[in-house]
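Sample pair:
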Amino acid sequence: MSWLIKVPSSTSNLGAGFDSVGLALNLYLELKVTRGSTWTFIPKSTCLEGIPTGTDNLVYEIADKVGKIYKPGQALPACVVEMKSDIPLARGLGSSATAIIAGIELADLLLELHLSQDEKLKIATDIEGHPDNVAPSLLGGCVIGHYDGEVSVTSVPVTGVSFVAIIPSFELKTKDARAVLPEDMTFKESVQASGVANVSVAAICQGKWDLLGKMMEKDLFHQPYRKKLIPHYDELASYLDEDTYGVFLSGAGPTMIAITSKEKVIQRIAEWKNTYSDFEWLDLSVENNGTQQLELPLEEIN
């Protein structure tokens, strides 16, 4: 018996939607799961080289945690897990969130838990601490969420735009990006920041991408602090200004994402790549289907 678990990546914050707005993208973590004699994780992608290959793998640790909650005393049956991913690690594209979702799906599959989407989302958000990456990876599309011990989310359809990821060669750990954020804000600053975030959400709901781009520039929650860790941020944002609706820092960074039209990508991406050849440029789209869990046909197992 063999199964496929496929989890899309995500971008989060979308400017001022700090820890609350996320969008699933068409980069994926894939797990091919086959029963075995001992737990073994086999990396099949360059970006996964060096990951733990036994029960110290994050996916197993999450699956084991879920199993102990729902079926205490019942061990996860050993499996060989082939892992493929085209999601760069520590670049702000939700790689850790995909591992969390994959672990939950793995436990659900192997222990026949039949968890609902709400249950999976609650587990993932409890682990992650906020829903902005795990929710879109699980559910697909654009998800706006709130977490205070309980999870409240709503999905927003997004169509007609492209998301171009500009990925530098260096990593930025989330803990380092969070360390530069202020511990508190004044009441006046909080009102201003929440106003920007509120208009941003309305702009997403109505597909007003120009307005969203303007609000991204006015964010007060995280980008003014984190972009200091991204030496090229202002230069790239200025360079792309005329060809995009807006540019934002994806998650904690250092990846930047430009929102633009498909037509503009076709016309300009070759020039962008040539001008800034030190970066990896990816033309991405919204993944609306979320996480998939499939039983593989016999001919695909070997």
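The mean pLDDT is 94.
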